[in-house]
């Protein structure tokens, strides 16, 4: 519901002091030319660790991570990921049975981790599972229970919710252990994670009659607010906010589209306002400021296409692609179910 509201008003709300540590796990069946199992560790949007079933080795994805921990860390994480890989492969078969499936392409996914608000001290945690792009099971940390609307997950839901020791372990990891490691990673990558890079803002238009796009790119961290004003008043109508995209260099880009007739914005003062930690940039919409260097054979500006392609390549390199490909909506997808619905898990919370 919140994401819909954000699109309607045309801005992206952020929390400047909030940090997160997330692990994305993806297991696949029947998908050629892609690892059967992939894990990615991400802190504040930066991929810092990676494992897949082809290399079978946990590896650093940031120089600061490689320099901050020793070989024993990577060996420990490798063993955890190998165990998780075996569980994922078993889980795919279990859930296929529950859905009465035999062949075809199927995907089990998990996103788990924690968040910490540096300003308020508030902490939160998540454990979300899915199967074939649909929500399967998720942890309600506040009420300490798993919830689902999928009948095939009821067995697991009941068994996990009846296991109070498991629920307490989940809570302890997300509110204590995970938070401690999040703070460590933030310290390790302080110069990178806490850097501030100002956005580059451009006004783009495909043709004289097309909507105008306010494109902000190259900024870090990802927290940004992009909005439109008309004659110095907030303007929410005819505005569409695009999704935040990761650039190849680890910075971010986002776009907000204003769909008003040229005659309208020419006789009024329309302004795109981009607010970032580094600075606030205001771009008044005038014909001379609009960039129109487009390839006539494409439907998007060349610069945006390059950015999107780079982002897709980055997802593939970091292993997040397996997660994104099967993500049908904004929530995280995955599954965890043993053959008898026991409390075995497809991912290992103690993974730091």
TrEMBL record:
Cellular component aspect of the GO annotation: external side of plasma membrane; extracellular space
Biased composition (Polar residues): 339-352
Transmembrane segments: 300-323
Ranges where the Ig-like domain occurs: 199-286
GO biological process: immune response
Tagged with keyword Magnesium: no
PROSITE patterns membership: IG_LIKE, IG_MHC
Region of interest (Disordered), residue spans: 333-352
Endpoints of the signal sequence: 1-16
InterPro entries: Ig-like_dom, Ig-like_dom_sf, Ig-like_fold, Ig/MHC_CS, Ig_C1-set, MHC_class-I_related, MHC_I-like_Ag-recog, MHC_I-like_Ag-recog_sf
UniProt keyword annotations, A-Z: Glycoprotein, Immunoglobulin domain, Membrane, Signal, Transmembrane, Transmembrane helix
Record's keyword annotation contains Signal: yes
Similarity comment: family membership: Belongs to the MHC class I family.
UniProt name for this protein: MHC class I antigen
Organism: Labeo rohita
Native organism taxonomy: Eukaryota, Metazoa, Chordata, Craniata, Vertebrata
């Amino acid at each position: 519901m919140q994401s819909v509201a954000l699109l309607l008003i045309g801005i992206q709300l952020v929390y400047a002091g909030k940090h997160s540590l997330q692990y994305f796990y993806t297991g696949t069946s029947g998908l050629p030319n892609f690892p059967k199992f992939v894990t990615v560790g991400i802190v504040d949007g930066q991929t810092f660790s990676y494992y897949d079933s082809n290399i079978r080795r946990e590896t650093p994805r940031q120089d600061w991570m490689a320099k901050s921990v020793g070989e024993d860390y990577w060996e420990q994480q490798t063993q955890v990921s190998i165990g998780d890989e075996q569980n994922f492969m078993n889980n795919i078969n279990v859930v296929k049975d529950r859905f009465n499936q035999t062949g075809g392409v199927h995907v089990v996914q998990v996103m788990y981790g924690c968040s910490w608000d540096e300003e308020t001290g508030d902490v939160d945690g998540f454990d979300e599972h899915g199967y074939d792009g649909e929500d399967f099971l998720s942890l309600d940390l506040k009420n300490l229970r798993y919830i689902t609307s999928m009948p095939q997950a009821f067995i697991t839901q009941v068994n996990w919710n009846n296991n109070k020791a498991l629920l307490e372990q989940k809570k302890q990891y997300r509110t204590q252990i995970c938070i401690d490691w999040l703070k460590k990673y933030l310290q390790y990558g302080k110069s990178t994670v806490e850097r501030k890079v100002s956005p580059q803002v451009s006004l783009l238009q495909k043709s004289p009659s097309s909507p105008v796009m306010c494109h902000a790119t190259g900024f870090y961290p990802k927290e940004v607010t992009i909005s439109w004003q008309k004659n110095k008043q907030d303007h929410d109508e005819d505005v569409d906010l695009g999704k935040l995209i990761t650039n190849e260099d680890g910075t971010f880009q986002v776009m907000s589209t204003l769909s008003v007739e040229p005659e309208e914005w020419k006789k009024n003062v329309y302004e795109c306002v981009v607010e970032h930690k580094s600075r606030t940039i205001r771009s008044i919409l005038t014909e001379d400021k609009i960039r129109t260097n487009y390839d006539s054979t494409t439907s998007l500006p060349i610069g945006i296409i390059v950015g999107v392609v780079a982002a897709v390549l980055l997802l593939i390199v970091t292993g997040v692609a397996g997660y994104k490909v099967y993500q049908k909506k904004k929530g995280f997808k995955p599954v965890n179910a043993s053959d008898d619905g026991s409390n075995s898990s497809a991912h290992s919370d103690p993974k730091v």
